[in-house]
Specification:
Blueprint lengths: L2 H27 L1 H24 L1 H30 L29 H22 L4 H17 L10 H9 L3 H16 L21 E6 L3 E6 L5 E3 L3 E4 L17 H7 L4 E6 L11 H20 L4 E6 L1 H13 L7 H6 L3 E7 L17 H10 L5 E2 L1 H11 L1 H14 L8 H7 L4 E2 H13 L10 E2 L2 E2 L9 E6 L7 H5 L1 H4 L4 E6 L19 E3 L7 H7 L1 E3 L3 H10 L5 E3 L13 E2 L10
Parallel strand pairs: 4-5, 4-6, 6-7, 7-12, 12-13
Antiparallel strand pairs: 1-2, 1-17, 2-5, 3-16, 8-9, 10-11, 13-14, 14-15
Length: 597
């Protein structure tokens, strides 16, 4: 080791010691919170333990599963031994990873002397045994769902691919690089500890306004909750009715204007739509007082008013994505109410002509894997913590979403970044995912209690806003509802129930892929993801699926045809953004989208 390498190693050792001290201090400071979490785990598993020793049927099922496991273990040892003696002999593994599991796909897991093949299959057999045992226990559905979620987290965390000594890829790389990959991995770990998150992409490869969110436009309005962007037309004529997009405020708006080949905004502008986009402000701790009523009045309704006045139109079309779609549904319920509301709402009644609900939940019966951990204890806990205001940190929300797909979004990067010492590749979607936002405490706890947990939005008049009862059945405008088949956040069955809650003419589209990639499935990538359409409505999701037709390529093209019929006549494109009443404030993407929490 030369002098330079010795100095680097000394610096790394010093940084590791410092990081260890910080971890210890953090653990001590958060020890009461950790204890609460451990108690929740213990409570769930205590129910299982009592069943395993007291319920005869459960005991019998457990014994059967364990005997099958032992037989599989014996067979595994036999096959590995035979393979070791004669690797030319035909070989069939006892168990293989489930489809889509890429943790053990590298050839190193299957190379002689087959030690790692044994470790891999042994892990899969143990995982299967644990899952079978817990599935055999008779618990109420909510407890079982929660138990399954926690169990999967532990099983995923203990995979041999997550540890250096049992990861053949990492060990081989360490040998090939003479230990440099291990040093690089420690440096990556220390860097991420300083960031407070796992690096999932090359953070230096992207910059909002330079290679993300670059569709030309201008901020034409702003208040304490949002900026409104109007995009520059790209056609000589445009549709009479403008399109107002309501993105979620869990993340930033530019997922819908990610890159020219993945931009729903640019696509719509090129098709002759005058597009307005809300860019939500990233709330600071002092903005924890903001509630849903603020997002309705100062966000959605104000955006409709500004867009309508700038374009000189009597109506607008609207698209809501994810939580933005939930907001759109609530807003329309108020605007369609016959009761007197407040001046701004009265002025915008009947001004929304047609709507698009993109990966949106108005019914929260099924909220996917997150339903396992959203219970009374969690809701009450967060209500107490945020009762005095403040915000839910965006990083906490990001960790919760990552836990839904931990193998892909957590442990994959533990192996790549820390065990192998590699840097993740540049991926704009993951950059956007990490560019998270805070959530106002008042808004979030209301959403958590009344929608995610108690599912009151779908119930007629169960919720009130501005002293007006909410009734989604009042929404009688044409609606284009999009679900995606692999959505873990707004499951496609849940998105489908929107068609049963609203009363206007509706079309349901089922896209391939998930919550994000299914939404930004641009036609530029030929037939990467397809979609289904035209199924029979009114008889449930299964009936719709059986009768649906297969469409090729992006659902955007189908949506554009639907929109063209709902957007009025063609008029000359405006020569500039904004108006005398709403002058241009600054170029897009504006200041709000670059603010950090």
């Amino acid at each position: 080791m030369d002098k330079t390498e010795a100095v680097k190693l000394q610096e790394l050792t010093s940084e590791m010691a410092k990081a260890g001290q910080e971890l210890a201090q953090n653990y001590i400071a958060n020890f009461p919170e950790y204890m609460k979490t451990y108690q929740e785990f213990a409570s769930s598993y205590l129910q299982v333990s009592s069943k395993l020793v007291s319920d005869k049927d459960t005991i019998q099922k457990t014994q059967t599963s364990y005997l099958n496991f032992l037989q599989s273990q014996i067979e595994l040892s036999k096959r590995i031994g035979e393979r070791q003696l004669d690797n030319e002999k035909s070989y069939t593994p006892v168990i293989t990873p489930p489809a889509g599991d890429r943790r053990f796909s590298a050839p190193e897991w299957d190379e002689s002397p087959y030690y790692f093949d044994f470790i891999k299959q042994n892990y899969l057999l143990i995982s299967q045994l644990i899952t079978e045992i817990f599935n055999s226990v008779d618990l109420d559905p909510k407890s079982k769902e929660k138990l399954s979620f926690y169990t999967k987290q532990w099983i995923d965390a203990l995979a041999p691919s997550n540890f250096l000594i049992t990861n053949p890829e990492a060990l081989k790389l360490a040998a090939d690089t003479k230990g440099q990959s291990i040093i690089d991995g420690f440096q990556n770990l220390l860097s991420d500890m300083q960031k407070g998150r796992i690096t999932q992409t090359d953070d230096q490869a992207f910059e909002v306004g330079k290679n993300l969110a670059i569709t030309k436009g201008s901020v034409v309005f702003e208040n304490e909750i949002m900026q409104l962007i109007q995009y520059t037309p790209l056609t000589k004529k445009v549709a009479e009715l403008p399109l107002v997009i309501l993105p979620p405020w869990i993340n930033k708006y530019y997922i819908l204007d990610l890159h020219p080949d993945k931009s729903l905004v640019e696509f719509a502008v090129k098709k002759g739509q005058t597009v307005f986009m809300i860019s939500w402000k990233n709330p600071t701790a002092e903005m924890g007082y903001l509630g849903f009523e603020d997002y309705i009045e100062k966000g959605a309704i104000k955006a409709f008013e500004v867009a309508r006045k700038i374009c000189g139109s009597k109506q607008v079309n609207a698209l809501g994505y994810c939580l933005g779609g939930t907001l759109l549904g609530m807003t329309l319920s108020i605007l369609k109410s016959k009761e007197k509301t407040f001046p701004a709402a009265e002025a915008e009644k009947n001004t929304v002509n047609a709507v698009t609900f993109l990966a949106t939940m108005l019914d929260f019966t099924d909220i996917g894997p997150m339903g396992a951990i959203v219970d009374e204890a969690l809701v009450t806990k967060l209500e107490k913590e945020l009762s005095a205001g403040g915000v839910l940190k965006g990083s906490d929300m990001a960790q919760a979403f990552n836990s839904i797909r931990a193998n892909e979004l957590v442990w994959n990067y533990v192996s790549n970044n820390y065990l192998k010492g590699k840097n993740p590749s540049a991926f704009n979607v993951l950059f956007w995912t990490a560019d998270n936002t805070n959530l106002p405490g008042k808004m979030y706890t209301y959403y958590l209690r009344n929608m995610l947990f108690e599912n009151k939005l779908r119930i007629k008049n169960a919720l009130r806003m501005f002293n007006v009862p909410l009734d989604l059945g009042r929404i009688d405008v044409p609606a284009y509802v999009v679900g995606t088949i692999e959505d873990h956040i707004a499951p496609c069955r849940t998105a489908f129930t929107t068609t049963e809650l609203i009363s206007g003419p509706v079309e349901y589209i089922l896209g391939d892929s998930g919550h994000i990639m299914g939404a930004i499935n641009a036609p530029s990538v030929k037939h990467k993801y397809n979609f289904k359409f035209g199924g029979k409505l009114g008889e449930g999701f299964e009936a719709w699926q059986k009768t649906a037709k297969q469409g090729e390529g992006s659902w955007w093209l189908s949506w554009e045809q639907w929109m063209s019929d709902k957007s009025g006549k063609q008029i000359p494109a405006p020569v500039a953004e904004g108006s005398k009443e709403f002058p241009v404030i600054e170029p897009a993407p504006g200041r709000y989208v670059t603010e950090k929490g």
